[in-house]
Amino acid sequence: MRQRLRDPVTGLLFVLPVLVLFLTFRIFPSLAAAGMSLTNWNIGGDWDLIGADNYARLLDDVNFWLSLRVTLVYVAVYVPLTLLVALGTALLLNQVVFMRGLFRGMLFLPYVTSFVLAGIIWRWIYEFDGLINGLLAKADLGPVAFLEESAVVLPALAVVSVWKGFGYSMLILLAGLKSIPASYLEAARVDGASAWQRFRRITLPLLKPTIFFVVVIETISGFQTFDTVYVMTGGGPARATYTLIYGIYDHGFRSFDFGYAATWGMVLFAIVLVVSLIQRRFLDRGNT
Amino acid sequence: MTITASRAVTGAKPARAARRPWWRGRWPLAALLALLSVLTVSPFVAMFIVALSPAGRPTVPRQWPESLTLDNLTRVLESSGFVAWTVNSLVYAVVSVVVILLTASMAGYAFAKKRFPGREAMFWTFLATMMVPFQATLIPTFVLVNSLNGVDTFWGLIVPTLANSQAVFLMRQFILGLPDELFDAAKVDGASEWRVYWTIVLPLTRPILATLGVFVFLWHWNDFLWPLVVGQSDATRTLTVGLTTLRTEEMQLSVLMASAAVSVVPCLVVFFLLQRYLVNSIAMTGLK
């Protein structure tokens, strides 16, 4: 009996530190973000309520639409490329026994490093006298100005993020592959199904939920790209890599236009929310 | 049914692989996997080669360096800025690991094993904050910390990053799986709640604490956007932010690459010591 009565108090006491942290630094800022987007808050801390003016400004802002397009194109390159590389390497790792642990470790290695480090290494790799152009020169090709040409800079940045991040999705997909009962594939083999047929008719359908999870996770991280842009291009050339988060940073910490920057943040929130809700919708359907 | 039937007809595992010519076997796949693995780590290898090449002398990709030297590394380790950033990054990562493990395990214990009013609502609210990307609340979080004079201080850098819903969620799920009897027995013996937490919960959750600790360390060591806006001088600037202030226009490439190489050492140590741990926990929990 005494135990039961003591429970609520101790329970609350144990949750208290986390509760305070969350209320102060997650929940309050989330609500404040919505509030700030309705103000003209600036660096001095002065502000007036200006209603939906920031949103009207956003809709008229050429740079916002450009930024949205840049981000969407980036995601459209980044997500399929990550999936392709992660699925390819996961399939290989699932097939090959020879030194599997070593190869898995090598493929996973970039994941434990930072996007900043990836950006610094790849900035050099893409330079005129960098690694790729050096190799191209040996074949009498190039040079290509990867980071200075609008047409190639987004795919070039996407490649860096794919390199840095695919190890995570590879491991998730590998776990998914391992959960497919070997007997299914074996039976199909015995029945004369080719490798491609086995992949197409058995592996792929059974892997679908895992692939879906990977696509959602990578889509969300694609929309949050910032570090590599900051390190490698600074949003350029001519705003060709001016992603949504870069816009938040630029308006907030270069122009100190906090109210408007918070409005850009709300757009990011809306996008991530929609992606998450689509995920839940599909997962629910998958369960029934 | 059909699967077991066809297996029964053909008998044991088909031993076809042995009769295939080598080029139809797994070797081409193993070679492809090896190639991809080498390609994946090659940017790191190139970084280390340049870092060990004499400054200002030709190196990869134009030609192999004539000799290797540790001069760049010692120059990096002697520069006061770099040492300060490294210490700051260590403080940022280690303090965060300790506090997050402590607070998240306490909250996880309460959410899993204690009854108190508002428990479910609170837990699901914590989870819902996962859907709000940090970047969307960057501006209000900065304004809040700024108004508390936390910009360019260690607490301003660290405290807002301690509200980690993934950590709370993971701890709660793990502790849910522990049998109630373990905790009840101790309480019958008259142990205080704190003692139960300290002598039973913490030791039993050691595996998940270790996993979480590795991830929190990597998240913070590699973190960029928040340290960028809040750590404005060398007093609190972290290594990732410091690295972005180094420009090839002002310093030799080999020194820059040496800085990058030193910054990745903790990640490599974690990777080589705990790779298996990381790999398994990603596959099992989807922790990213």
Overall pLDDT of chain B: 85
**Low-pLDDT sequence parts of chain A:** none
**H/I helix tally of chain A:** 12
The proportion of residues in beta strands of chain B is under 5%
Taking the sheet with the most strands of chain B, its summary is: none
Biggest interface: A-B, 102 and 98 residues
Output the number of helix runs of chain B: 14
**CA-based shape of chain B:** globular
Low-confidence stretches of chain B: 1-17
Measure the end-to-end span of chain B.
Answer: 39 Å
What order do the helices and strands of chain B follow? Answer: HHHHHHHHHHHHHH
Number of strands of chain A: 0
CA radius of gyration of chain B is 26 Å
Radius of gyration of chain A: 24 Å
- Oligomer status: heterodimer
Shape of chain A: globular
Helical content of chain B (DSSP H or I, runs of 4+)? 55-70%
The share of residues in extended strands of chain A comes to under 5%
Helix content of chain A: over 70%
How many β-strands of chain B, per DSSP? 0
Transmembrane segments (chain B): 29-52, 90-111, 123-148, 154-175, 196-221, 253-274
Organism (chain B): Nonomuraea antimicrobica
Subcellular location (chain B): Cell membrane
Domain ABC transmembrane type-1 (chain B): 86-274
